[in-house]
Design a protein that fits this description.
The protein is α/β, with parallel strands linked by helices and 153 residues long. It has one domain: Rossmann fold (3-Layer(aba) Sandwich), CATH 3.40.50. The chain has 5 helices and 6 strands; from the N terminus they run βαβαβαβαββα. The strands form 2 sheets. The chain has a 4-stranded parallel sheet with strand order 2-1-3-4, with helices on both faces. Helix 1 packs across helix 5 and helix 2 runs parallel beside helix 3.
Length: 153
């Protein structure tokens, strides 16, 4: 059986986070960074890049994936449903973009972009009673980097 572990020592992470819906995304970012630090990742091994909105996440995530020193990219954002179909387009495109990047790049790319019906749901998932999906995306990134190392070594 091949598994990953949760030791982040020596792993370099890029985090792309949206500024839009910052009340939510800043909590996601705090959760992700806290998770990384608690699992042995040094502050200098974390690169945070802020983008205007979730739609821009895949473009910047691709640039980080191309950097040799980055082992994994954590994507964080919040797309909250409104009264127009805008939600469907943005949520679909950011999901597709990050998913394609994860498959095409050969590097770990995790998805911590919330797609919720309202602000309350987003707050619950960014540090409320439903946990912090930023933390979850960071934890998955640590495990996946170690898992891929175990498969290729």
């Amino acid at each position: 059986m091949i598994e990953g572990n949760l030791n982040g020592t020596g792993i370099n992470f890029g985090i792309v986070t949206s500024r839009f819906n910052s009340t939510v995304t800043e909590s996601l970012l705090s959760g992700a960074v806290d998770c990384l630090r608690r699992h042995g990742v040094l502050e200098e091994d974390i690169t945070v890049v802020r983008v205007p909105g979730s739609f821009e996440i895949p473009t910047v995530a691709r640039r980080l994936v191309e950097k040799k020193e980055i082992d994994a990219v954590i994507c964080l954002g919040a797309v909250i449903r409104g009264e127009t179909p805008h939600f469907d387009y943005v949520a679909g495109e950011v999901t597709r973009g990050v998913g394609n990047l994860a498959l095409d790049s050969g590097k770990v790319v995790t998805f911590g972009v919330l797609t919720t019906d309202n602000l309350e749901q987003a707050l619950e998932r960014s540090g409320g009673k439903a946990g912090n999906k930023g933390w979850d995306a960071a934890l998955a990134a640590i495990e996946m980097v170690n898992l891929l190392k175990n498969i290729t070594d």
